[in-house]
Design goal:
Blueprint (H helix, E strand, L loop, with lengths): L1 H9 L4 H14 L5 E3 L22 E3 L19 E3 L10 H6 L5 E3 L22 E3 L11 H8 L5 E2 L17 H96 L1
Length: about 270
């Protein structure tokens, strides 16, 4: 919320005031990587207030600020992309190679560049791969594209197209450093997801093995319990048979006693 409130006032400031504000802001946030100062007008056509304190700056936009020269540009060793379109720059590009050694994207559209020779200092930007010169008078020269590609062999895209007139991909419009870090983060996230998937698969396999073992254990228990039940039934049958045998023995004994009493009675009758 504080940043949004501050940006509201920045729109009404001069370029010097804007840069003073952001220079102070950068002391509190030394990791600032992008700085947009579009439409903050320069009083004398030069960059004022921007300092080398923005050591981690990778993207700087100074669109339509009334610049005539870039001579006051501080050394920004990590800067990848510089937007200078819609200004009044007509030359003096030597400072770019000296102060921005790792620059890869440069937009000079809508400036006062008339001759191919004014672009010669850009040969020293060995990492420069994208250059935009839309609406500059130099684009009206015969063999303009061929001449620029010949002058700057390190260049891949001129005004959004390569040597074969193939359009630059959207991703090429972003800062290389930022893109690489985002790709690294995505790659790490994908690796983490793959690791999690692998762990889940291993966990599922272990669960399946445990379930198989449980099923086998239950089957063994069922077999044992079946045998016990069968054994129990046999025991009950045997006990019933033993009871029947005992009953038969008792009946035989009683019948034997009855016969014995009968004989004794008969003998007594004969004696009488």
């Amino acid at each position: 919320m504080v940043v949004g409130f501050a940006l509201f006032f920045v729109l009404c400031m001069s370029l010097k005031a804007c840069l003073f504000f952001f220079s102070f802001f950068s002391l509190c946030h030394p990791q600032v990587r992008e700085l947009v100062l579009d439409n903050c007008k320069s009083n004398d056509g030069k960059i004022e207030g921007l300092t080398a304190e923005f050591v981690n700056l990778e993207f700087l936009s100074l669109i339509n600020v009334g610049l005539i020269s870039v001579s006051n540009l501080p050394k920004l060793p990590k800067l990848k992309k510089l937007e200078l379109s819609d200004n009044r720059i007509f030359g003096g590009l030597d400072m770019l190679a000296e102060k921005l050694p790792n620059l890869t994207h440069l937009n000079l559209s809508g400036n006062k560049l008339k001759d191919i020779s004014t672009l010669e200092p850009l040969k020293k930007l060995e990492y420069l791969k994208s250059l935009d010169l839309f609406n500059c008078e130099v684009t009206n020269l015969n063999d303009y594209r061929e001449s620029v590609f010949k002058l700057l062999p390190q260049l891949t895209y001129l005004d959004g197209y390569d040597r074969e007139d193939r359009e630059a991909p959207d991703s090429d419009a972003e800062v290389d450093g930022v893109d690489e870090e985002e790709e690294d983060e995505e790659g790490e996230d994908e690796e983490d997801e793959e690791d999690e998937d692998g762990e889940e698969e291993e966990f599922d396999d272990e669960e399946d093995e445990d379930e198989d073992e449980d099923v086998e254990g239950e089957e063994d228990e069922d077999e044992v319990s079946g045998e016990e039940e069968e054994f129990g039934h046999d025991g009950e049958v045997d006990e019933d048979e033993d009871d029947e045998d005992e009953d038969e023995d008792e009946e035989e004994e009683e019948s034997g006693k009855g016969e014995k009493r009968k004989r004794e009675t008969d003998d007594e009758g004969e004696d009488d």
